[in-house]
Design a protein that fits this description.
The structure is a homotrimer. With about 475 residues, chain A is mainly alpha-helical. Chain A contains 21 helices and nine strands. Chain A has two domains: about 100 residues, uronate isomerase, domain 2, chain A (Orthogonal Bundle); about 300 residues, Alpha-Beta Barrel (TIM Barrel). Helix content of chain A is about 50%, strand content about 5%. Chains A, B, C: One of its GO terms (molecular function) is glucuronate isomerase activity.
Chain lengths: ~475, ~475, ~475
């Protein structure tokens, strides 16, 4: 523990019962349920940690580059306090040590802005349990906390592989471009000294968005990598099939898709070729580009029914809402905003085609939580292929998790859900995120035991399933 | 009680405090409120039990045909586990005893999938309180439970009429086709030995859906039954008026309507006749068919303002989402999925026409729960004719009921709601469903007493009203 | 205290712990948090009390004209019980004393209909704490309560200014027409004996609604008052700028806008002039009128970025849903019904233009609570200019407030919210409304302390901020 000499410096107090219900009887049930799964291995079937980190096992960079700059959960709310994103290192090519330290001070100064958010829970747990300091981030403690992290990062047991084992990760999925050669996954698989399991995930979004200016170039590149002429829709399809097979051969179990809406609908082959040709020539209207994207996504579903890669959807987000930030600083900086998202009609064609297909499996996430009780739980409560994804992104927080279980369970039970998905690039926070989910599920289950909807035994089985069989089934692990 | 010899077989434990809040102080208030209404007679103003059952009073069939095959709450979630619907008897003309027993085994095997759903609460309560076995359904106990039910079904006091009295039903509404001759209702009314009250409900959906291929044939049949030429819209209107009068003369107090959306809007008479003629000739476009349906539904509202039948709406469901199941096996098998549903604009014309009409009364149900606080409670909080229907279908569950009360009460109070509606064809589960609702309302009221929003006396009055005056007023009983 | 001689007359019991959580441990935390802010001065940055009341300081009228007729929270739910609005004085030019008393009897008779609504909480608190009677309104006590209020209203310490000080109001914003000369605000500012702070708010809705028949006349009047020819769009813009400056010079800190949707989008200047000219000539289509309104609202945002008046939006309500009541009796009588409201796309243009502008500040309210977690909290969690408005209108109630905090906090924290806004013309109820909000926030914070998401110290700071720095920052007070 790195500690301040002053006895009055505020400390982080990680209460062992945090996030468990206040009612004493319910809390004791929740504590028992949580304790039984607290140390279960972490299954992380969807996330954004680069495979390179584990393949190369290099030390992490400075605290700001490690914890702040790449984490849009932090940058967005700091930006909302009036902090320029560049002051946090976003879009800054090579920040100086002074810039990094200054950015960290900004985080500490505005730390009270995170009260009530899960970011506060996660980062404080990281500081105590991963870094080993219980100093509360404040303007006064900023440099001490920064130094504590920097010192810890330099230690040999703080390399990515050591942490992987210390965190108790059983499997970790990355998210990868279809043209990626997966060299890091290959290296890991070939390394006899590496006991972990790191799987690629096929994420082809950009190759389906025919309305974007870079699309023709990307599709050319896809053709080169696959060794197929992508000048036709048929060629695009073949190239994708080949790349999916490549990913599957490297351990992938799922593809991931995040478009503005959830719709996928088949294209008549001839009309599809015409649309595709128009888009290649830059002559597709915005509506045609959307129609083509929905057709290409339907093709992805069709491939999934054949190659058995689980299809996961993360729709309904307006990406890069603030154009100026996008143009100056790039994407994924915290300006993505959800929109109303519809599933019953959008998924009609694909579920009619493959909804009862034994090879097809679809995990649907949403940031429009109104869909949970209205559409997703009813769909998952009928179609054996469809699973309701765990609370995602803005909903990855204790109250939202409770609402998710309350909205889904009464219609679809527990077994039609996906298990927790950390969806993060913040590697250090993975245990804290899974821990939060386990606490939230224990809290929900305890409530059902306390009002006698479940027996304690039933709740124990469910709590175990939710961290073992449930994600393994939803993601075919 | 039929019990297993083995002392380790799992037992159903129906805790007397189930569904009541965990906090001890709140629970004791809830228990007192619940106890005061626990045995109040059951008013069931909307459901799907066939009148024939009570008129003929024949023994129930085998356990699977009684409990599984016709209950889409069960078949849907079993289908989601990968069980073919035909294995549950759906669409099977005359299942063999072996098939029925095998289907029951599937239910028992997958019983854990129902954990957290109200189906588990209802069926376990049925097993203990109606059947008289406390054996938990499992693969091991399946045959014993099956035999226990089969034995019970054969007993004379297990006939529909005996159960009606044992269940303490005061009034039971059925759901009937406008062309139905209501012979079973007539027989019951004429039977001096029958002390119950079974009312028909006028459900004309199919006669309004001009976009369906069977519509012209149905409308012909309507004309025959009513003795009116339905070749014109005016004829259709007259025929409906006559059939409504026939239903009213047989005790009906309401008509029920379940279309894709809630809109009803008047048709200009001449344009209406043209639309109707086009639809009769099979020449109406899909949009025109929708426009005609909304016009016909508006006519229903106009009739309601004259004949005083309460109009109930159950909109917003995509029926038969899975076409293949529909084509092979029929409807009502668990593949109906809710959609976003709008009311403020949709009901504008009808509320402007009849919203303050003293004879008009409209009870609006929804499976899009976002409408409760946004639209339905505000509407019911102004229009004396409009009542917010109880949580329906997917929302007929403890957590959803709590959300319903929390969403509606602060804007519309308790008196602008409909009282509980079981909406079921699962006759045996009627007491369990009403019991769940009474517990949920007691839990909600207890919370308001515990935080001093209501006095205990006020809560007692409300709890009594909710099972007596509230449904009687909403349904004009 | 005015009391009935009969010991059995029902009494209002205002429990000191009302609205605090039932769990004893959580309640004691909530009580401590609430006690620390209970008597903090009231900041009321948005409401509908006329400045004239405070400028003239005349006695209030009779109890019905004071409490019932102008309060659509009361008239709407009484209308839903079947009470004609005219019986409550709505649209009645000069009600007789008998009519006023009869209206008050109706309120008392139907008082049970308000159980579970915040109206009951507010009015009972007003009766006990402002009027000084603990008689529960019933048919039997109606005249006694009426007389108690009438007697109290006649007392000198019951004048508006005396109550302002007794209520502990620090600042009170009114809502005013752009053409208002603000004479009452001027008089108050010039009165050395008046220690309060009453600010106008610029509310130009009617001048943007080019689709309404009165629009050309209103725009003419705007031109006269501003001394600018409003025959062109450029003239309209100049006139608005001048009136905003006039308001700012008289202390205004915000403008307020309540249209059907939240969209604002710039007009091309030439096209804007053409649209404006068409609208002036009464030739604009409904779609063009909407387009023009959105363009004019965008201009308001542009002005806000220059003059620094905070822009507040209250969109998403279908005003005067019941046309017959509107035509006979006017507006604001309880027939306004919310509609689904979208923000992510609607606010895209304005946030791209001014979202990071240091002078621009936007507070967004909604009665479509689905937007809180999906759109408003994400937007406020990125854009430093955007604040999530407090629960408004139908959502201004304990359970809805809890849902609001639960939906917003995990994504945006506490500091990106507006602080409580009473939005009322019911002057006597202002303390009760703020008290309800303080209790609700204490309850929410106590829950976060009880499950160790916040320390007690953190919760105390937040509770203080929410009634001091938070509204001051959001409204630039």
């Amino acid at each position: 523990m790195v500690t301040l000499p002053s006895p009055v410096a505020p400390r982080i107090a990680l209460h062992p019962d945090r996030l468990l219900p206040a009612d004493p009887g319910t809390r004791s049930i929740a504590r028992e349920l949580y304790d039984a799964v607290r140390t279960a291995p972490i299954i992380s079937p969807h996330g954004h940690v680069p495979a390179r980190w584990l393949a190369e096992d290099a030390p992490f960079p400075d605290p700001t580059a490690l914890l702040i700059t790449p984490d849009h959960y932090l940058t967005r709310l700091l930006h909302a306090q009036g902090v320029p994103l560049t002051d946090l290192g976003v879009g800054v090519a090579d920040p100086s040590p002074e810039q990094s330290r200054a950015a960290f001070r900004l985080l500490c100064r505005f730390w009270p802005a995170f009260r009530g958010t899960p970011v506060k829970l996660w980062l404080e747990q990281v500081l105590v349990e991963v870094i080993g300091t219980d100093l509360m981030p404040t303007e006064d403690t900023a440099d001490l906390v920064y130094d504590a992290i920097a010192a810890r990062v330099a230690e040999p047991d703080f390399r990515p592989r050591a942490l992987y084992q210390r965190f108790g990760i059983e499997v970790l999925a990355t998210t990868d471009d279809p043209c990626d050669d997966l060299r890091h996954h290959t290296a890991l698989a070939a390394d006899p000294s590496w006991p972990g399991r790191v799987l690629p995930t096929f994420r082809p979004d950009r190759y389906l968005e025919a309305g974007r200016p870079e699309w023709p170039r990307l599709v050319d590149r896809l053709g080169e990598v696959a060794g197929v002429d992508t000048g036709t829709l048929a060629g695009w399809v073949t190239a994708m099939e080949l790349r999916r097979a490549y990913f599957a051969a490297h351990g992938a179990v799922s593809s991931d898709h995040g478009h503005r809406d959830a719709r996928m609908a088949p294209l008549d082959p001839a009309a599809g070729e015409r649309l595709y040709a128009a888009a290649r020539a830059g002559r597709a209207t915005p509506d045609e580009a959307v129609q083509l994207r929905r057709g290409l996504l339907f093709e992805m579903a069709r491939m999934a029914s054949e190659d058995g890669l689980v299809m996961t959807l993360h729709p309904g987000v307006c990406r890069d809402h603030h154009r100026d930030s996008r143009e100056r600083l790039g994407t994924d900086l915290g300006a993505d905003i959800p929109v109303t998202t519809e599933f019953t009609t959008a998924l009609h064609p694909v579920l009619n085609a493959f909804g009862t297909h034994p090879r097809f499996q679809l995990v649907v996430f949403t940031v429009d939580e109104t869909a949970f009780s209205r559409e997703l739980a009813p769909l998952a409560g009928f179609y054996p292929s469809l699973y309701v994804g765990a609370p995602w992104w803005f909903l990855d927080a204790p109250d939202a998790m409770e609402r998710y279980r309350a909205a889904v369970t009464e219609t679809a039970g527990f077994g039609r859900t996906s298990g927790f998905v950390d969806d993060t690039r913040a590697y250090l926070s993975i245990p804290a995120r899974h821990d939060t989910s386990r606490r939230a599920d224990a809290a929900y289950l305890a409530r059902l035991v306390a009002d006698h909807r479940l027996t304690l035994d039933e709740a124990h089985q469910i709590a175990q399933d939710l961290v073992t069989t449930t994600p393994r089934k939803a993601f075919r692990l």
